Every structure is written in structure tokens, then in C-alpha cells.
């Protein structure tokens, strides 16, 4: 049985207190995860600070960048191992993990290694009140030991999206992967040792949130900042923990994203794009669409087209040939999604397709699979339109005017992402300016330029990461003024 160990100060550490890791596609136990306790957290924090005072803290930016490139290259050299680990942990389709999760898991190190080498700092020259001159310049220094709390939907990608900039800026990190997906974060420890990242720089502690490693990390006074991706209510708990000692947080949280399709859109591209944004990764993408609004002239045609796309998705495990829809991450999450399916029916939805569980054969019959589902006919106050479900489902409603589409899209506490489909430039830019989100895609979805700001507005997050924006969280900025 595979053992998922903690990675502390360069060593893999068993604790003997373990919990099962089950494969989402078959519900078979595939490993034992060693839960870290307060003692392991204390040891990791001490090791992280020791690394900051040692070789890592003295290392040049150029050398740090070289090592991060080497980390990316080693992930790519061990691509098949990372892919197998991610597929076992998540059950997602092979094509998805091999084209998105693992490549981005490596690319996240390269982009920030290059940014920190080339990012300018600011300087000002002023005439002082006595008629002299003063020059100011800015210095950046690492935040310190950073807690990195990760979700289970894109485990490697979302973890290195934070570890990349954190290390590039000279910090050390203590990663707490989701209890659902321990594998790739643990494997990355082997890579760190192999390329020569000093011990204590990258550490991994397994466990849960409250009363476990997650909470112990966020409450530890030696953790100088916390970057977290996960549910909004979890963010509230972590923010409360971080308040003691006034430690900075960077949050990428939940969403209830709108997809808006105008009658003038390229119909086939809009259907393909909305299909991806609703059903990719079995709907377990924070940026995904769960509310679709279609301009009335094409509403019926669009619903029929999306229905056909949903029903054409092949449901299966990572290696099912042509699979388009994998399992949900866990039995608990499957029960949550099915509870929303039941609520939609109870509240009078028209179930265009899906609404239940597929019938699968063999081991897959034990997996956490649900049907891709489309609803229409519900009022905007309905539960499945108000609450994040995080499954392969959406509600489609018609709209008539731009103003109505903007009002519908903004009627949520969340503000993460939206995808707008139109061929009218004016419509596109007016929508982008009016919708209260951190990320607006026009005639596209989940298209990523890693130099850009990434994050959510309102209840979807605090701060922006990506490009130079990451430096605002992962460094302390000092202004130096020199009187000449
Ligand atoms: N905005 C984004 O970029 C983004 C990306 C991916 C997922 N998400 C969101 O994440 C959610 C799904 O992921 P999830 O179920 O893993 O989220 P979650 O909030 O349940 O858990 C995320 C992580 O937080 C840990 N955790 C839970 N409670 C904690 C606590 N009190 N203290 C410290 N750590 C704690 C968990 O162990 C896990 O590692 C969805 O809401 C999704 O929208 C957002
Ligand atoms: O499920 C959420 C996906 C987040 C994606 C990123 O953070 C990214 O592409 O960098």
C-alpha cells in the first residue's frame, strides 16, 4: 500500500497516524496518508526559518531562478510519474491532466523564475524643501515562511502556482495539500532534493483543516503569511487564524460564475466554450460556469446544442478511451452535488439532461460519478443558482438586453470569473467593464497568460497573484530615501 509521507527539512517523515486515500474512479483504497500533528508543524516552521538564515537566504536571485528552472525541468523529466500520481489522486481524464495539470505544474516555476530576474524596482528623485536633492529607491525582501494551503481540484497546478513565486521571491514554504490529493506535492519533495533546493525550503505536511495540520499551520506564529485556495467559508476561518499576529493572506476562493452568450456570438464556438466551462474537470474548476445566460433569439437552439454536447460526454476513469467526464473527488462531494440535483428538482427545474447517476460497469460502478446536468426554468433565487455546487451542472436562462445580462451576472456575492461570447466589440468591452469579477474571458475560457493578474473580487478572494502581482504578496517592499 502506497504511503504518503510528510516532507520536513529534506526528509520524508511518517507519523503513524494515517488516513485512507481512495481512488475517485473506483473508491478503492490506494494509499495511506501520514497526518502531521503540531510537533511536525513546529519542526517544519523551525526548518523553514533555518533555511532563510542559511544557504537559501544568502542565495542570489539568479541562482534561485536557475534552481527553479531545474525544478521545472525535473518535473518534466518525471512527467509520467507526476501524471500517474495526479490521475490516481483525482480520477480526472488522462488528456486533461497531461495537457493542463502537469505542464502548468512545471511552467509555474519557470514563469516566476524569469519574472524575478527581470522585474524592475522603482526609484524617484525629488527636490527637497531646502533646495537640495533626495533619491528614493525600493527594496524587496522575502516575506519569510509562507503557509500554502491547497485544494484538490488541480492539485499540482494550484500548489506550484503559489510555490513558484514564493520560492522565486526567496521565501520558504510549508505546503498543506488537500487531504484528498496528497500525491504530487509529496513527489515534488523528491524533485526538490534531486535538484539541490536546500532542505527546509519546500516542505509538505499532510492532514485536514480544523484541528489538524491546516489549522496548526495557519495559527503558527512562525508562519509569516498564508496563501490559500479553496472555499470561501474556509477562507473566513483562515483569515480569522491569520488575524493573530496580523499576518498577510492571499486568497483564491469560491465562485458562482456566469457564462453570457449573445445572439451575435459565433454559435459553435460559444457552445464549445460553454461546454468546456461547465463540464471540464467534472465541473470542479473554480473558474467554471454554473450560471448560463443566453440572449433570447438563440436560447432554445443553444439549450438543445448544450444538451447534445453534455449527452455526448463519455463518462469514465482516467484511462477510459475518449473519456470526457471523470468522477467527482470523493463520496462526500458526490453526495453534495446530488443533493443540489435533488434541490433543483424539488424547486421545479426543467431537467434538460442528467440529474442523477450514470450506470457504469465493473470497478467504475463504485466510483464517484454523476451525470452531466442542465436545468432551465428556475427563478434566480433558486438554490442551484445562488450556491456554488462545484459539479458538472449548470442552469440556463434567457436574457434580452446587455443591461439585463450585466445585472444577472453581478447578482451574486462571488466575483471570480465570467466568460462572454459576442462578436460585437462594443458589447464585449462594455460587459468586461461592468461585470464585477477578477477574471473576464471574451470568446474564450480558462485561457491563461501567467503574466496577468489572477484572483477574485468580492467573496471570491483577496489579492491578485500572477506576473509581477505575486511579488506584492510574496515580498516585503521597503522604500529607501537618500538625502544627497
Ligand atoms: N479561486 C480559485 O482560484 C480556486 C481554485 C480552486 C478551487 N477553489 C475553490 O475551492 C473549493 C474546492 O476545493 P476544496 O474543497 O479543497 O476547498 P476547501 O476549502 O474545503 O479546502 C481547501 C484546503 O483547505 C484546507 N482547510 C480546510 N479548512 C481549513 C482550516 N480551517 N484551516 C486551514 N486549512 C483548512 C483543506 O484541508 C484543504 O487543503 C471550491 O469552493 C472552489 O471554488 C478556488
Ligand atoms: O479551479 C481553479 C483554477 C485556477 C487556476 C489557476 O489558478 C491558474 O490557471 O493559475
Automatic annotation (TrEMBL):
Fetch the CDD domains from UniProt. ALDH_F8_HMSADH (cd07093)
Q: According to its UniProt record, which protein family does this protein belong to? A: Belongs to the aldehyde dehydrogenase family.
Molecular function (GO) terms for this protein are: oxidoreductase activity, acting on the aldehyde or oxo group of donors, NAD or NADP as acceptor
Q: Where is the Aldehyde dehydrogenase domain?
A: 16-480
Q: What is the name of this protein?
A: 2-hydroxymuconic semialdehyde dehydrogenase
What organism does the record attribute this protein to?
Roseateles puraquae
The UniProt entry annotates the active site at 252
Keyword Flavoprotein present in the record's keywords: the answer is no
**Signal peptide bounds:** none
